[in-house]
Amino acid sequence: MKKVVNLIATIALLVFISPVSQAASCNLSDVTVDLGDGESAEANDCSVHADPNNNDYINDINTDFGLSAYTWEESKNDILDGSIVEGIGISGETLTSGTWTFSGTLTDPFVIVLKATDNFASYLFNGQQDATSGTFKIIFENANYQLQDLSHISIYTTVSNVPLPAALWLFAPALLGFMGLRKKTKS
Questions:
Q1: Residue in 112, 107, 111, 89 with CA at minimum distance from that of residue 99
Q2: Contacts of 131 by beta carbon, 8 Å cutoff, 6+ apart
Q3: Is 172 contained in some domain?
Q4: Is the peptide bond before 163 cis (omega within 30 degrees of 0)?
Q5: Per the domain annotation, does 99 fall within a domain?
Q6: Mean pLDDT of the chain
Q7: Dist CA 153 CA 78 (whole Å)
Q8: Domain that holds residue 106
Q9: pTM score over 0.85
């Protein structure tokens, strides 16, 4: 009986003192954009995802943030292989915080995604015109409560859909009417 009690006490002790990875939560200030003149703005919204890959996230952005039907395109920098892709740069003493830069100009809305370990966090910016740089801070910890290094950063920008002019909708029926008149005059 004493052995059983000791075994249960040992198991309970191991369960309560063993490090467990905490679920991360994001703060709007984890990623900022530089507005110039020393001013910066934080994200309007953020969400955390426990997913080893965010390859299909481009299809979920509108749903994730409750947006209308925007079309998105991705620019990505894979920090792990050291490449600077599509104009995204990272600088800082560590890969847990630092600055990001984008060679183009980000227009509203845009989403910045930070990936570390098997998690990623997405940050929506809406209302920050002409952003080209900002700061980032990783929020993901391992089982020993150590911050994980950034492995990927992606920036999703909206694609400008060229609207079909209203005049075309008016022009098409008129054109069809002229074609009908032409056929009527021939017969």
A1: 89
A2: 33, 34, 35, 102, 105, 106, 110, 125
A3: no
A4: no
A5: yes
A6: 75
A7: 7
A8: 21-162
A9: no
